[in-house]
Amino acid sequence: MIFFLFIQNLLFSEATLNLKSSKEPTYIEAESLTLNQKDKKFIYQGKVKVTQGEMTITTDNLEGIYNDNNEIQTLNALKNVVIIKGEALRATGDKAVYDAKTEIVTLTGNPEVTEGESQLLADVIKLFIAEDRSEAEGNVRMKLVKKEQ
Q1: Can you give the pTM of this predicted structure?
Q2: Phi, then psi, of 54 in degrees rounded to 5
Q3: Mind listing the domains of the chain with CATH numbers?
Q4: What contacts 11, CB < 8 A, 6 or more positions away?
Q5: With 90 as the cut, is the pLDDT of residue 14 above it?
C-alpha cells in the first residue's frame, strides 16, 4: 500500500525540505508511515519520495522529529539517499541529516554532489541550503568542468 500525503499545514508546516523559505506544498510517497504524536516522531519506510517545488528526495527510510508548532526539527534520510534540485544539482549518499535550525544537510556514507559535469566527493559533504553553498571534509576530491555559455 502506498500512502500519498499532501502535507502543507499538518506535519511539514514551514520547515520542509526546501526549506523554511519555501511556500510550496510537500508531497510524500512511501510504502508505510508510522506517526508517534506523543513523541512528535514519524518514520516513512519503503521507496520514500519527497517532492517540494524543484527539489526531490528519494530514500529507503525517512525519520523525523517535529515541534509543538508542527515544524520539522530534524530529518534523517537513511539508505540510498538521492537529492535532486532543478535539472543540474544531484547529491547522493548513504545518509542525509537535515537540521532545520541551521538549514544544513549533512551527507555521509560515500557522499557525492554533481552539478552539470562537475563533481565533488568527500567523507562528509554539508549543503548550506539558505546560502546555496557547500563544504566538504575528509578525502576531498573535485572535478571542475567549465560551464558552456
Answers
A1: 0.79
A2: -95, 10
A3: 3-143 (2.60.450.10)
A4: 35, 42, 66, 70, 72
A5: no
